[in-house]
């Protein structure tokens, strides 16, 4: 197992390097002069030239990339000009809020999606299967940002059950119940699509397992149906479900960008949008690379968990 984990970590290195190349190239291809956008009304030719020199923008793109990459390897992600603070400090401060939102949504979509898929497969063609299939198709068809806006309109504006935006109230206590009230709507809006995908693929995986000979043997030996479904079939189906959960983790993490904008959640997604509007290149590059690195590491964890369930994967 240790050798397998080391192999997966080594294989992640070129992936991360590719991510840095793509992020840097996209930011370099954005039209316009960053120095002019930064200076605004003070963008005289002298000031633009000086700022380009200070930021290293007067160097060739390849040289700038390797300087940026080498600084990141040493833990220096640069300094945000719009916030006047280190990029790494700002991203880490914001990442906590994103982790709360995305982590809650991922737990919801995993638990509800797998449970719905198992029940749907166990009651194939029954009323529960049809109801879950209809709910799944409905959830997949509704964009998360539209659902978020509708939830604000109904549950915050009209019914006043939940706060409309923010992670904490402007005035008042910052306790766990208060956080839960602010978290409920954005977490549910973000989890709906992922829950539908997990439920559909969990149903398919369970149906395939339930057709296996050892499942029929377990039933013939008198094992209770609940034990057959939840103890034997689900464990075998999890080998196919875990990769789906890894993909949905990336979807939830990336989807947090627009959900944070809809609900004014103070996370990395909202920070990146503000940084793009201000042409804060180093902040955008650092934020995207750190989020992508978290996604890569999570997929490694999923692969390791999958190999524990099915040792044949390591060979």
Provide structural commentary.
The protein has 315 residues and is an all-alpha fold. It has twelve helices and two strands. Strands 1-2 form a two-stranded antiparallel sheet. A hairpin with a 4-residue loop joins β1 and β2. α7 crosses α10, α8 packs across α10 and α11 packs antiparallel against α12. The longest helix has 39 residues. The radius of gyration is 24 Å and the shape is globular. The mean pLDDT is 83.
Features:
315 residues; mainly alpha; two-stranded antiparallel ribbon; globular
Count every helix, treating DSSP H or I runs of 4 or more residues as helices: 12
Whole-number mean pLDDT: 83
Quaternary organisation: single chain
Radius of gyration: 24 Å
Globular, elongated, flat, extended or rod-shaped: what is the shape? globular
The total of beta strands comes to 2
């Amino acid at each position: 197992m240790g050798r397998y984990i080391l192999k997966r970590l080594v294989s992640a290195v070129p992936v991360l390097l590719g991510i840095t190349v793509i992020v840097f190239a996209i930011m370099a291809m954005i039209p316009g002069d960053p120095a002019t956008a930064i200076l605004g009304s003070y963008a005289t030719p002298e000031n633009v030239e000086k700022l380009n020199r200070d930021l290293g923008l007067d160097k060739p793109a390849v040289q700038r990339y390797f300087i940026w990459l080498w600084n990141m390897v040493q833990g220096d992600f640069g300094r945000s000009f719009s916030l006047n603070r280190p990029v790494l400090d700002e991203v880490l401060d914001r990442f906590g809020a994103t982790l709360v939102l995305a982590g809650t949504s991922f737990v919801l979509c995993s638990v509800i999606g797998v449970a719905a898929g198992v029940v749907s497969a166990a009651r194939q063609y029954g009323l529960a299967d049809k109801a879950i299939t209809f709910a799944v198709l409905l959830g997949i068809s509704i964009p998360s940002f539209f659902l978020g806006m509708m939830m604000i309109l109904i549950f915050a504006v009209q019914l006043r059950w939940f706060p409309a935006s923010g992670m904490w109230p402007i005035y008042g206590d910052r306790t766990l119940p208060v956080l839960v009230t602010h978290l409920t709507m954005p977490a549910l809006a973000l989890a709906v699509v992922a829950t539908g995908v997990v439920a559909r693929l969990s149903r398919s995986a369970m149906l395939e397992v339930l057709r296996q000979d050892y499942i029929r043997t377990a039933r013939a030996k008198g094992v209770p149906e609940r034990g057959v479904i939840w103890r034997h079939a689900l464990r075998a189906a999890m080998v196919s479900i875990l990769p789906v959960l890894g993909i949905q983790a990336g979807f939830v993490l990336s989807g947090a960008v627009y959900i944070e904008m809809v609900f004014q959640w103070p996370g990395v997604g909202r920070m990146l949008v503000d940084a793009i509007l201000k042409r804060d290149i180093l902040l955008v590059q650092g934020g995207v690379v750190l989020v992508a690195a978290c996604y890569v590491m999570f997929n490694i964890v999923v692969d390791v968990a999958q190999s524990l369930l099915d040792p044949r994967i390591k060979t």
